[in-house]
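Page 42, continued from yesterday. The earlier attempt failed because a stray header line got pasted into the input along with the sequence. Redoing it now with the clean sequence only.
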Amino acid sequence: MHRILLFLIMLLLPLGTASAAVRVGIDSNPPLTFIDANGQAGGLFPDLLQQIAKQHNWKLEIQPCQWNSCLEMLEDGRIDVLPAIAYTEQRALKYNFAEETVFTSWGQVYRRSTDNSQIDSILQLNGKKLAVLAGDVYYISEQGLRQVADKFGVAIDYVEVTSYRDAFIKLAAGEVDAAMVGRLFGIKHRQEYGVQPAPILIKPIQVRPAFAKTAPPQLKQQFDSSLADWKSSTTSIYYQLLEKWLGEKLATQMPQWLSGLMYGLSALLLLLLLSTLWTRRLVKQKTRLLKQKNRQLEDELNERQQIETELRERQQQYQVLFEENQVVMLLIDPETRLIVDGNPAACEFYGYPRETLQGMNIGEINQLSPEEIKQKTLQIKSGDLQQFEIPHRKANGDICPVEILSSPIVVEGRSLIYSIIRDISKRKAAEKALADRNDFLQSVIDGVSDPLMVINFDHQVLQFNQAAARQVSPELLAQDKISCHEISHASKLPCSGDAHPCPLQEVKETGQPVSTIHNHLDENQQIRIIEVLSSPLYNSDGELYAAIEVTRDITERQKIEELLSENEKRLHHLAHHDALTNLPNRLLFEDRMKQALSKAKRSRKQVALFFIDLDHFKEINDNFGHDHGDLVLIDVAQRLANTVRESDTVARLGGDEFLVLLEDIDNVQLVEVMAERICEALTHEMERDTYRQKLSASIGISIFPEDGSTGHELLKTADKAMYQAKGKGRANYQFASTPQAHFDF
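This time it went through. Structure tokens are written below.
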């Protein structure tokens, strides 16, 4: 009566209600949804919506779209419902999903039937091209293929398509190595495209209609109400459509004993008409029980399928985590201490075949005593994660240090110990090399004769050599911490001030090596001059954390350097000056000439070179003696120095030849005036006993740059001009060229 009343109400309801327009998005995903050759919507979900539309007076408006555009249209309200969409928590935030699930499906990877390459696990997809539906839940969800591949470090070249059919087309054409589609589509179309499934499944999902947030709420309510009623009857249109489109006949066959009972009851009904009503009541009760059992069987079947899927996933995970892992792994029975299993990496590491490794006592591999093995086993069984280092023996007898990480694990109800073994022989060798290197470095710094200390920026001494240790008193050595200023100055405060600048502070501020000079008092209270060399010290992260400080007593060196400095000055003067006249010699004169010419090029001024040769100097030597001749040369040098400007240079070239260099010349009159002054200063008469001799000078003048661009050229032209002066009677000066040509005013 209840169903009849509900049917009459639903039958009469459309008479007083206008048709509700419902916009339905249809993408190409047969057999769930598709648009046929006539432009009509077909598939399981369109047929299901048509039946619900009849009940609730909906007017369906079909809007074809591709998958991604369908999702966008649903989100912004351009369609009211997208019939076939996998439920995820992320999508539930955007759309209103129906409460009733139409069916459960999962994603599966397919490969070409003619392809001989093995694709048996997700690891074998590494580096391969895989066609996937853009936005597909099997592809981008939290437990989708992309996230699973990322967890295992598998790099897949994803080729996104707009439909499952496009994925199979690309796979069949050889454009991709594999394709991932929904289970139903793969079952229906794998023979059509010549592809076959690979044992790679993605977690099952529930497929339901999703309604837009802007759609009327009663659409979702009416859908859930109708589908819930249909699910309660195995003969409903819902199960008929499932069988039509998915080939799944879900109605439960009647047991043979019930069939016999029904025949018996029918016969009894002929004989006993009065028992008809009672028999019908019993049949209805049995039918209701059968429906309940059928639903239970369906739930159990779905649960079993989910469990099988999870088992396959776990098998794949086990394949990756244990069998294909490059890390050495062992499973050990804590009671018998026998190795239950070892992965291929363990077999390769220890050098045993797998069948040999299985069943070996762990004591045959590690170097612990039975009592130590028992103690370790108890600690691991207690649930504490144990990490320790011990040597392990390989099949060839080699002993290898390993690091072991062990924890309890339950495998198929059996309590075992799961151990990860890592070869640390390289690390141990590196540690030994580091220790040897540290010992070597300590030996090196101990071999340094100067005191050496490593000091942090709190003035604490971190390390020192033997030379520094000899400066530390026994009282200081007994302390836990020693400050550098306690060693160097016997002071409780660090160095400071101009007299004792702190080199540690300068290194900290500049990050550069610094050198400072300190005055220390020795045991006799005598001042010693100490040179402190401080260099920055960085840690492995490139951070400045300390300074290396070397001290050296340079008291005696300072005294020697002072003496050497004076000697160097004296030798330098002797090397560049004439020993007799103390005038610059030719070497120093050439250097000053070079500087003067370089300056003249920059300032665009001129330089004049006087080549001076004394007249009758040979007669003076012959008549007065060479000692008197030397006195004459000294006198000439003094006269020349008093005649020229401070900026000019007077040099002795050799014998009775002198040179004068005039800089910053800008007119010929200055050159002539200076030449006349020199001639006048050097012209005088000498007398000794009854002998008299007149002394004068002949001067040749060259001017830069007209008479020469180098010092050598100027000296050569001035020399020629000097001989011209001698040819004209001596005691005069001559220019190498017309002087007016040098100055253009």
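Notes: The mean pLDDT is 83.
Reminder to self: strip header lines before submitting.
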